[in-house]
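Recap for those who missed Tuesday's class. We walked through two folding examples back to back. For each one, the amino acid string is listed first and its predicted structure tokens come directly after. Nothing is annotated here on purpose, so try labeling regions yourself before you check the end of the notes.
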Amino acid sequence: FFFFQAEDGIRDAQESRGLGDVYKRQVHGGPVMEKILLEGKPRQTLFTGSSKIAERLANLLNGKICIEDAGFDWKILGPDVSEFEYVCWQSDQDAYACAGQKCSAQSIVFAHENWVKKGFFDKIGELAGRRKLDDLTCAPVLTWNNDKIKAHIDAVLKVPGAKLLYGGKPLTGHKIPSCYGAYEATGVFVPLESMLNPQYTDLVFTELFGPFQILTEYKENQIDQVLDACERMTHHLTAGVVSNDMQFLHKVLGRTINGVTYSGIRARTTGAPQNHWFGPAGDPRGAGIGTAEGMLKVWTCHREVIQDYGPIPKNWKLPPPS
């Protein structure tokens, strides 16, 4: 059995660094973890990291693998505005703690118009502006360099109606090697209508594994469009529904499929307050990391031993063949 963790969040084997560099070198023929796995022929492997590497290993290991998987993780702010400062702080933490380099980091926020009127976008920008390298609330990005980060931000800003809300600049005054990223905590607004346009959906829902998130606003009558957007995302790991409105919660929770969904006014996307199921929904390879059920699923299997000690009847005779 093998447990292999590559929590640098590689999304492209060619671009990986950190722990994921083993896969970058493997592409060019170096002896790496993949070689150990193939030669060791494990009965089971638990992999927590990139979705692309998970798919590669699933093929190479003939499906003998459980995964944590990646996630373009969303948060929906419901119509009932309360605990404004706390919700803004939690959103800043979800998106930018560890420079956004967590598989469960917040990638997009759907803010109800009531939150926007209250000043949510301004407040989240203010909180993001407190982050700096000196106290490591900004940090090097292992898998995206500045050129790649800038190219993605520029591409998203070309989506109709998109605009930069805050950040958007490389960090200065440091000695971080250019092969890594060093960027301000950044937020880009994209209209809901634009991200639902098939021409832009894949771009907007691309996970930048660093200090970057998409923000958008929805009106009271647009919740179904928001849920449509969530359904279009390709990896359903974590999510947050920030509301104490039970009817709203039931609607959203009943129509989304993420493996872990936090709900309530204190909902987050990352930083679990306790161990619970952690893995993608709708994928039989989901590992369920952090739970007794997950340990049983990954590290045990069903088998049976049939016992038949007799006795043989004393009048038993050799029967004809059957």
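Example two. Treat it independently of the first, because the proteins are unrelated.
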Amino acid sequence: MESSKNVSDPRRNNSKGGKGKKTPGKSQSFIEQNQKGDRFIPSRVNSKLDTAWHKINNKPSNSSETTLAEDEYRRKYKDNLDRVMGINENERILAYSSRPSAVEGYQNKTKVLYSSSKKMNMDGKKSRHIPAAAEKVLDAPDLRDDFYLHLLDWGANNLVAVGLDQSVYLWNASSGDITKLLTMENENDYISSIKWTEDGSYLAVGDSTHHVQLWDVAEEKRLRNMRSHTDRVNTMSWSNHILSSGSSDTTIHNHDVRVAEHHTSTLTGHAQVVCGIEWSHDGTHLASGGNDNLVNVYDNRSVTPIHSFTEHQAGVKAVAWCPWQKSVLASGGGSADRHIRLWNTTTGVCNKAVDTKSQVCMLKWSSHYKELLSSHGYSQNQLTLWSYPTMSWIKDLLGHTARVLYLTLSPDGQTACSAGADETLRLWNCFQYDPESSKKKADGMQSGRLLFGGGIR
């Protein structure tokens, strides 16, 4: 108790020599010389409010782009939240009006958002399992890294043909056997395109010497060696007995393989390299894409385009006809464009365009689902599944370490085979369908009639 009495209180130290702080008098100013403002109202003279507002509302130019998966997640999350909260698009959440009275049987939808333990399906559709990894990976040494070539095709005989530099190899998807079909004679020559006939009996091979070779695979024998182009043959497509070939000489030639004078017509319409061509499923129209950024559509009775689409901003290699809607054509642009566009070839109108955020190399439609599969280059080198007709993102298939230049589908339409500049072939089970519909689908997958009944001369 005594020790507490010796403790001095500085507030009571009123001696003249004391160093304690005194209570200020009326004449003493409360404002220090260095003080420039009230502590509760800070000065904003040096604040850059305009700059701050700009940074909040504008994305920096050097920021990294979001992926398609992130964009789709945000979109679905917003749509799902609006649906659960009962908010319609473009509707104001807050409005100066009284809240309407609840009708009989009304249920507060917010309770579902916070109380439901079941994971909601944001699309409202029955989802299927799509394996994210490739089922099988095969080495493809010396596969050319060339955007303009077509070096992969899967025939109705279940043989995958791939062009590896000077040679063409056949991989039997049923047994796993590998056969070398041919090798170019000159070491400086190389394979530039390959395409199976509809029934898988014959294989067309385009090369850097401007020739189109026709091979009987069963006999491992070359039947014809056709030359009409003045530069390498980049792409080919069959329509019954007519083989169309697109070349770096900017032209498309039609070959009737039944006759000696095979070159029947020349299609002009491109000013630069022809990158991709494909006949429609009914054989009435031919679509082509070129390095001049054009997509041309030809009628089978004319050598001039009936449509010439100019919306792409880069070379167009990927062209694909929809199997269940014959007037719909899909096309994909290169690195400077990155868009997939859906065209109505009856009206000549672009129905849909989507930015894929990477180079579009190939496009393939599913025959079992209303979906489109695309292959891409930098930066993810992925395959992407899209839902038709909304073109909403479904899933990315990752595995390739370089751009995916070549893409083909199995005869039953369930498996996709991709080939990339990383010199690998990858098989993806991305279109597996319900076993209950297997028989019905199999009936529609029967091999077509023999295309060369009259023989080849």
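Answers for example two:
The chain is about 10% helix and 35% strand.
The first strand starts at residue 136 and ends at 139.
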